[in-house]
Amino acid sequence: MQIDDYGNVYLYRNKDFSFTKYDSVGRQLGKLMFTVPYRVQNVQNPLSIPVFSENAQEMKFVDQNLNEIQKINLREKFSFIRFAYAEDLQQIWLLDESTKRLIQYNFRNDTTINAYPFNLNIEDLIDLLIYEGKVYMISKDFFSVYNLKFEKLFEAPIENARRLRRENERIAVICASKIFLYTTEDGFQKIFEDPETQIVDKNSLAFFEIKGNKLYLYTKGDLNENRFPKSFETGLKPKEEERPASIIEEILETDKVLREEEKEPASQQQKD
User: Fold this and answer.
1) CA distance 59 to 176
2) Which of 99, 110, 117, 206 is deepest in the core (most CB within 10 A)?
3) Residue-by-residue DSSP string for the chain
């Protein structure tokens, strides 16, 4: 589940490879059916949402109605891309597992800008983000920061990490029931936690959680923004967001499948 700054909910289902967008009252705004697994990078720009398929070796961009607006075939130019990260509407970063290189690629003019060798074990890599000469990674057990020479700058243990999100200079780590924030100045800090939650997420304006089959919204005021991100106040009184029960149930069912997949050994997932 991801929520954009307009309150729209995006749901990718591993079960049937569908990607669906709903508005705040549960009305379906778009649906895209993939034939192979894809990973939705983020929905921060609803007009151009990047999605990547390791199986198909391609990256696509879809618009606000989830219509495909561009497709980049990576198989024709590169070996085997394990991860792809769209930096903007011109450049993508590619983690080439075969040649052990991190590639900066301008897809508008079909030019490789840079290639950086790496010798990291990416077996358990979950997500990747590159910004201002730094490589941010989450794996099964760690959040790590490297420079482009792949010298480790920072590392912290984490559990049940789902994805990375960049907000200006800040890097958010979204986990199953927690959200952390990393900055060079303040380090790695937990900014949201609810042990009883089923799913948490964040957009630029608020935090969201699903608990007890209801969606709750925490605004910046609720989180005592005047000291954010250095403190997290407990005893919050969030606003309960209205979402149709069918949408909440679909989100929870999708998350249940994801949690079950996380428990499987990596070798078994690759076999499947």
Assistant:
1) 26
2) 206
3) -EE-TTS-EEEEETTTTEEEEE-TTS-EEEEEE-SS--EE---SSTTSEEEEETTTTEEEEE-TT--EEEEEE-TTTSS-EEEEEE-SSSEEEEEETTTTEEEEEETTTTEEEEEEE-----TT--EEEEETTEEEEE-SSEEEEEETT--EEEEEE-SSEEEEEEETTEEEEEESSEEEEEETTTEEEEEEE-TT-SEEEE-SSEEEEEETTEEEEEETTTTTGGGTTS---SS--PEEEP--HHHHHHHHHHHHHHHHHHHS-HHHHHH-
Integer Cα distance of 136 and 154 in angstroms: 9
Q: What is the DSSP string of 28-92?
A: EEEEEE-SS--EE---SSTTSEEEEETTTTEEEEE-TT--EEEEEE-TTTSS-EEEEEE-SSSEE
- Give counts: helices (H), strands (E), the chain: 2, 24
Residue listed under structure tokens 């499947």: 272
Give the pLDDT confidence of 34-45 residue by residue, as tens digits: 999 999 999 999
pLDDT beneath 50, residues of the chain: 224-237, 266-267, 269-272
